[in-house]
Amino acid sequence: MASQITLPQGIVEGRRQDGVESFLNIPYAAPPVGERRFALPQAAPSWPGIHEPDAPRANAPQRTRVIPGLDAVPLIGRGWERGDSYLLLDVHRPAGGGDKLPVMVFVHGGGFVVGSKDAPVQRGESFARDGVVYVAMNYRMGIDGFLPIPGVPTNLGLRDVIAALGWVRDHIAAFGGDPANVTVFGESAGAMAIADLVTSPLAAGLFRRAIIQSGHGGMTRPIPVARRLVTKLAKLLRVTPDAAGFASVLPGDAMLDAVETVSQPTARIDLRDADGREPVFGISRFVPVHGDDVLPLPPLDALKQGAGAEIDVLIGSNAEEMNLYLVSTGVREKLNRLLAWLVLRKSQPRAWAVLKAYGIGKTTAGRALAAAMSDLVFRWPARRFAEEHRGRTHVYEFEWRSPRYEGELGAAHGMELPFVFDSLATTDQPEGITGEAPPQALADRIHALWVGFARDGSLPWPAFDRETRQVHRLAADETVREPAMPAAAFLP
């Protein structure tokens, strides 16, 4: 028989299946519409009767992109599920119940413009079967969540995640979870959010551990730089660049058209900082900003001052991150030397020196660019986060190579997700990211590592430090001393 749990707003009812009890689509904050659309997250209203597990689900306004030859639905979901109340979370727990179980809270990726808690690869029942209380939430994205509009609180998407973590602190004990043993984890944009919140004074005390998958704290912008995006979008939407102007454009096609336009590689917008660097390398225009109460300092600067030292961190990357973007589209094989330089020059002032450091001339321009950007965008900034974090930090590398695209996709961005979640069934298909028959034994081992870390912080390889640079390669199951990358010369 399914359980019922009484929360301050009302009763929620679980649904049992395969040893897991699931409480779905619980509002953790009020619907962000009307006057609340660009406001701080507010307490969810009460509901009459029982909030059932099959209540309507919704997510943040978004428009998903097609990746040629790849079924991306398991990774990012089916797109926009319309509905006013989308600040929702799910809780999965062992069907047998328990008390003071470890808690894992997942923040989904998607470049801060797409994705949701409901993407099949990350549903989380596998963690509940292994004795964890698993939570996943939606948050505001794009214009509503990560655009520093004058007159609007900054970093609303991060504030939503903080609000969800506050909900976990206050209510997870009713589901059998231990609010003093919370591990927050995420991938890509979700990992970026977590890395930022490790340093945020507003998130202090809300989690004990953090797992940062293909993310780091190096992708934030100063507010004045991000305001250039406000101006650009206001012109596209023909509104004033302020709270009233953007509030006049309701979520829908016009807003999503504008987001899509500024997200194109050909969009004319300069988001470089004072050093001539664009820290996001054009992958997303919408990212957190620093210089407010959420992130008073750039995260790496905050780490140097000891922020987040009480948090145990597991951080890592995939060996060939950029292949997701450059191989699946065919761009890697089409680029010549000039185009590779032009692509990189938009974000990196020493673009030609970077390409030379990554072997252009000895390898094709596209392969040199892919290797360079994998390190510049993901791998080296993750190591820099590990270097500056004053607490215990472990670093991993996921290097299993997918056979997709005639073996060229490799250990691309997002590849670790079905292994972490032990959800290979969602990608084990001809157009899945892993291709057919990915190794279940590897998923068993990686999933168990994540569970063990959440349970008590344990990992079977040494912590990272600047001298020994211990990195654990997950597929090979070996720990190596990793030398500094060529990217080290080109990033702060």
TrEMBL record:
Domain of life of the native organism: Bacteria
Cited Pfam families: COesterase
Ranges of residues in domain Carboxylesterase type B: 3-478
Family: Belongs to the type-B carboxylesterase/lipase family.
Keyword Ion transport among record annotations: no
Entry EC number(s): 3.1.1.-
Root EC class: hydrolase
Entry protein name: Carboxylic ester hydrolase
Any one GO molecular-function label of the UniProt entry: hydrolase activity
Record keywords, A-Z: Hydrolase
Organism: Sphingomonas jinjuensis
Keyword Acetylation recorded: no
